[in-house]
Amino acid sequence: MRVIIAMLLMLSGYAYADCNNISDNDQRAYCKAKVDGQSCANISDNDLRASCKAEMDGQSCSNISENDQRAYCKAKFDGQSCANISDNNLRASCKAEIEGQSCSNISDNDQRAYCKAKVDGQSCANISDSNLRAECDAMKR
Asked: Are 19 and 32 in contact (CB under 8 A)?
């Protein structure tokens, strides 16, 4: 779940796609904050809310309690290295997004497809997880 949350920090839709197609309340609220400019306050998960506030409101990544999520946030917004991320897929995603490396090093199929949609402009249709695909679609519209 943590990897999905981190990937949701990345941008990546098809016509008529919107955040309302996401069944998870927190993921839907996060999407609405990014896509529609709504408040991050509607996110109940503390780390996801802190990530949203770091991205949308410029707040500190230090409020994220999970180490890899905090390191990802710091790489994305504070210019720190992706090397501080211990999760292989999240580190590979970070390196693809931040450092321009390939998405091919991501072992999870959905995360790799999401990365390719975001970084390489590929379609979100290859993502089998419906929430992640909806998020990707909403971000790309």
From this structure: yes
φ/ψ of 75, rounded to 5, equals -65, -40
pLDDT digits (tens, 9 = 90+) for 24-66: 999 999 999 988 899 999 999 999 999 999 999 999 999 999 9
Residue 48 CB burial class (10 angstroms; 0-12, 13-18, ≥19)? buried
pLDDT digits (tens, 9 = 90+) for 94-115: 999 999 999 999 999 999 999 9
Put simply, whether the predicted model's pTM sits higher than 0.90 gets the answer no
Give the residue from 42, 39, 8, 3 showing the smallest Cα distance to 139.
8
Tokens 């695909």 — which residue?
133
CA–CA gap between residue 6 and residue 17 (Å, rounded): 21
Burial track 67-104 (b if 16+ CB lie within 10 A, e otherwise)? ebbbbbbbbbbeebebeebebebbbbbbbbbeeeeebe
Within 10 A of 58 (CB to CB), how many other CB atoms are there?
A: 8
Domain residue ranges of the chain, discontinuous segments joined by +? 2-140
